[in-house]
Design a protein that fits this description.
binds zinc ion; 166 residues; 5 helices; alpha+beta; three-stranded antiparallel β-sheet; elongated
Length: 166
C-alpha cells in the first residue's frame, strides 16, 4: 500500500477494524519510510449490478439506498436496524450469485418482501404499502392474505408495481 506522502510501498498496520457490517476492513497504517499515518479500506470485490427502474431508467444497485428505504419503511415496526442490514446483505448476495448482471426494481422488491415476511408482518405490510403501488383494495387484501398463505402471496404479481429505486 503506497504512502500518500512519500510513495513508499511498505507500511505497518497499526489497527484493523471491520466496517460496513463486516464487508469492509478499515486499516490504520504507518509508512515504514516517513512514519506518515493513513487509513485504507479494503472491500470484498463485487460485480456492479444494474437495476432497471420501473419507468425504464437504469442505475447501479446501491446497497445504502436500499437500506435507507428499508429503514424508512420499517420505522416503528419493531424491526431492528441490524435485521434490516442482514436483509440487505442477503439480497446483495443473492444478486451477486445470479447469472445476470441486471435486475428489475420489482424483483428486488419481491426479494425484500420475501425476507420481511419472515421477520415482521407489520414491516411486511408497511413495506408493501410503501413500495408497491396498490392498484386496488383487493391488491392490498391479497398482500395481507399472503401472510397466512405464503404460497399465494405472489398471485398479485404483475399488477402491483414496485419502485425501490425512485
Ligand atoms: Zn511515507
Amino acid at each position: 500500500m503506497q504512502c500518500p506522502t512519500c510513495q513508499h510501498t511498505d507500511s505497518r498496520v497499526l489497527e484493523s477494524r471491520a466496517a460496513d457490517g463486516g464487508r469492509n476492513v478499515r486499516r490504520r497504517r504507518e509508512c515504514l519510510n516517513c512514519d506518515f499515518r493513513f487509513t485504507t479500506y479494503e472491500r470484498v470485490e463485487t460485480v456492479p449490478i444494474t437495476v432497471i427502474k420501473r419507468l425504464g431508467g437504469r442505475e447501479t444497485f446501491n446497497r445504502s439506498k436500499l437500506l435507507h428505504g428499508l429503514f424508512r419503511a420499517c420505522e416503528k415496526t419493531g424491526v431492528e436496524p441490524a435485521q434490516l442490514e442482514a436483509v440487505v446483505d442477503d439480497i446483495e448476495l443473492a444478486l451477486q450469485q445470479r447469472n445476470g448482471r441486471e435486475v428489475t426494481s420489482s424483483e428486488i422488491g419481491e426479494l425484500v418482501l420475501q425476507q420481511l415476511r419472515d421477520i415482521s408482518e407489520v414491516a411486511y405490510v408497511r413495506f408493501a404499502s410503501v413500495y408497491r403501488q396498490f392498484q386496488s383494495v383487493s391488491d392490498f387484501v391479497a398482500t395481507l392474505e399472503g401472510l397466512s398463505h405464503p404460497n399465494q402471496a405472489r398471485s398479485g404479481k404483475g399488477k402491483g408495481r414496485l419502485a425501490i429505486v425512485g
